[in-house]
Design a protein that fits this description.
The chain is an alpha+beta fold and 152 residues long. The chain has a single domain, classed as Mannose-Binding Protein A, subunit A (Mannose-Binding Protein A, Chain A). Helices cover 25% and strands 22% of the residues. A hairpin with a 2-residue loop joins β1 and β2. It is globular and about 40 Å long. The N and C termini lie far apart (43 Å).
């Protein structure tokens, strides 16, 4: 079973690399070719030494929204798992600038703790939605930053 899991990680990495990374600033982004939960997508990123994408600017948000055209919704590295309503990135920094859709985040059913970029909005600056971390399968985006970047 362990060998199967290792082979799956290698396959996922090869599929992302085959599609090629996208570059923005000092970061490379790998859009998944399959759909998984936020937790599973994050683990796939971490297995490659990466993590889910962190948005640092309006320009980066617009860039990621543009990558999302082919797949619909995609997970980013934002969550409020630790404390409801306290949205933080996977590197534990608090989200200060956000791009939520109107009425979001709404924590529907007290079960939405992870963020995604959605094309239900036509405006990239109002395209985030909260969803259940482990009961919704969509694509995800991994980021490999080559520099330490500050938050907005």
């Amino acid at each position: 079973m362990k060998e199967k899991d290792q082979l799956q990680v290698k396959l996922n990495k090869l599929e992302m690399e085959r599609n090629g990374p996208s570059r923005f600033g000092q970061s490379l982004y790998y859009l998944s070719t399959e759909k998984k939960s936020w937790s599973q997508g994050r683990q796939e990123c971490r297995n490659m030494g990466l993590d889910l994408a962190i948005v640092n600017s309006q320009e980066e948000q617009k860039f990621l929204y543009g990558l999302n055209n082919a797949c619909g919704d995609m997970w980013i590295g934002l969550h409020d798992i630790s404390t409801e309503g306290k949205w933080e990135w996977v590197d534990s920094t608090l989200a200060t600038a956000t791009y939520w859709m109107k009425g979001e985040p709404n924590d529907y059913g007290n079960a939405e703790d992870c963020a995604l970029i959605s094309h239900r909005s036509t405006d990239p600056l109002t395209s985030w939605n909260d969803a259940g971390c482990d009961n919704y399968s969509i694509n995800w985006i991994c980021e490999n930053s080559t520099e330490t970047r500050g938050r907005l």
